[in-house]
Amino acid sequence: MCSRRAFADEEQAGTLMALSVYGSSQAVLFGKGLFMAVLLFALSLLIVPVYLVLMDVAVFAWGLLLLTLLSGTYGMAMAGTLLSALMAGARAQNGLLSILMLPVLLPILLPAIVLTAGCFTGDVNGSYLVGMFLYDAIMTIAASLLVDFFWYED
Q: What is the pTM of this model?
């Protein structure tokens, strides 16, 4: 996932300190998170039509599929950006971040899989979408509350 590099590039280039001095922690985190969400959503808008054509799949609920893509990409981007900010100073970033990402992303991936399959079969359960929106809200609030603790050093 691209978000693992969100803060690691600044750490390696030495610009992370400049970001912490001149930018607020909230603005940097949400700027990187929203950029990653837009990037993932644009990528999914390119990949999904190709998948639908190649697999010859009919979609019964286009609106629900679009909301699932939007909510899933936002949740994945915010979770990845938050964990990337948390792991910015760690030495073993690649291995440790990969291990930490799976349990954090499972609550957004599993409902997204069920909803996507429901969009293809016509059997739709909207409670999974509510759960995805709640996960997005929890990730946004957690990122907002936790970013100051690892952004500013004493």
A: 0.84
